[in-house]
Amino acid sequence: MKLLVTTQADKNIKNITQITHPLFKKFAKKWGADFYVINNPSDCFKTIGKYHESVDHYRILNIYELYEKYDRILYLDSDMIINKNCPNIFKEVPYESIGVAYEDCGGRKENRRERIQEIQSKFGNVQWETGFPNVGTFITSKIHKNIFTPIEGEWWLDLGYDCTLLGYQFNKFKFPIQELSFKWNHMSMFSESWNHFANRFNSYIIHYAGAGVFERGINNREEQIKKDFKIIYN
Fold first, then answer.
1. What digits encode the pLDDT tens for the residues 152-190?
2. How many distinct structural domains can be found in the chain?
3. What's the CATH code of the domain at 173?
4. Parent domain of 150
């Protein structure tokens, strides 16, 4: 079975990827997988004033074409650190299932479930009520490749972009989902009081999504990533 670890990136986040991508390569090799960076523009364009701008969130849909070569693909956002204690996720999630963590919890529960209803108002009801995915850590197999397409040729251009569209698609196709623990996608929201201030260093993959700041006194996610990398690997 041919495996791939992939991510998306461009030169604008080089200061981050020069830290995170070597880790992705290291663990891909450890797990018997190739590593590939998606850097071509998305096929989705959003009109901003009189200009058209590529929606980079949808680069992830290039995974559809990657399934011409691979049997299973793990997608990781580039603003992540894989911790030393990370198991082989290809062995944790069965081939038939999509593996993803949900973020409709804590203080984001109401907002994310509103997004679930909004996309169904546009594209039709697929009996999706709960389980809004964060595709920062997202493992699929070749049998799931059709989720990496627009919905009936249309894009979702409102809040959530790829997370909302992909959540709709795998609910539409009724694929089995293995909900991943937050330890596979530890964003700052999972270190809040509702989750008992969980320590990110006990998780497998730390995700510096959004502002990406876990600590007071840290100015931005790049600074947080550099500090955390030194704590884990030095």
1. 999 999 999 999 999 999 999 999 999 999 999 999 999
2. 1
3. 3.90.550.10
4. 3-233
